[in-house]
Design a protein that fits this description.
6 helices; globular; alpha+beta; 238 residues; 8-stranded mixed beta sheet
């Protein structure tokens, strides 16, 4: 019997663990994809379609929240950098924006510089019409905030009578149907949704084992080497 899957059998605290992790990100208030990362391919209308399965990290966090700033300055130069607030530290753009919020005429500039949040997760690509070669493979995926809100809703339903579900669970989770409609500000994922609960790989434990053996630690996003120093960021911002 598989030891890797033992923690997911019968009663377990995976849902409570997921809820706790989501709650921590909410309390914090808080490019170029690397090899091993996946994202939906946009067509000529800037739309996309795919089905993925969120995967748990048996010995770690199933997702990691990452903040980034991406904006064009008054000189026409782009500032695209990871925010040190991801590491729980001060960031020069965040400090500048805080000061600007106190001046009505500068609020729009602060909004343009606002940090963008993604959530790094492991996914098994079930269907990828644009790139069929991705199907059946495990990748890291930087999920946009609007999609992660659907993960939150599934784990913490707001509608009375809805059951709470851990979408990362290999037996009790569900496939995630991603639908992105082209818009001025990028894909609108409002029509995305989770399918009915179903076991990963049809419940075949050998296949589940093989899939979970491929997941990566999402905490690699917190490697300090990926973040420029406060001083370097401040110099670039200035």
């Amino acid at each position: 019997m598989s030891k890797l899957l033992d923690k997911f059998r019968g009663k377990n605290d995976s849902l409570n663990k997921l809820r706790s992790a989501i709650e921590k990100t909410q309390k914090k208030g808080f490019d170029k994809d690397d090899e091993g990362y996946w994202k939906p391919t946009l067509d000529k209308t800037k739309s996309c379609s795919a089905i993925v399965r969120l995967l748990p990290v048996p010995e770690g966090e199933s997702f990691t929240q990452v903040h980034k700033h991406s904006f064009k300055g008054p000189t026409g130069t782009w500032y695209i950098e990871r925010s040190r607030t991801t590491l729980g530290e001060l960031d020069p753009v965040g400090e500048l924006n805080s000061r600007c919020w106190d001046v009505e005429a500068l609020k729009d500039a602060a909004r343009a510089r606002a940090r963008r949040t993604t959530y790094t997760v492991n996914v098994l690509v079930v269907s990828d019409p644009a790139v069929p070669d991705n199907e059946g493979k495990v990748f890291l995926y930087r999920m946009p905030k609007s999609l992660f809100a659907m993960v939150d809703e599934l784990a913490n339903p707001t509608e009375e009578g809805d059951d709470a579900i851990d979408p990362f669970h290999p037996f009790d989770g569900a496939n995630f149907r991603i639908r992105g409609a082209g818009s001025k500000n990028g894909p609108n994922y409002a029509k995305s949704k989770f399918e009915k609960q179903s076991p990963l790989c049809g419940g075949d434990e050998d296949k589940i084992e093989a899939v979970l053996a491929q997941v990566k630690d999402t905490q690699i996003e917190l490697d300090p080497k990926l973040y420029k120093s406060y001083e370097d960021l401040k110099a670039k911002l200035d």
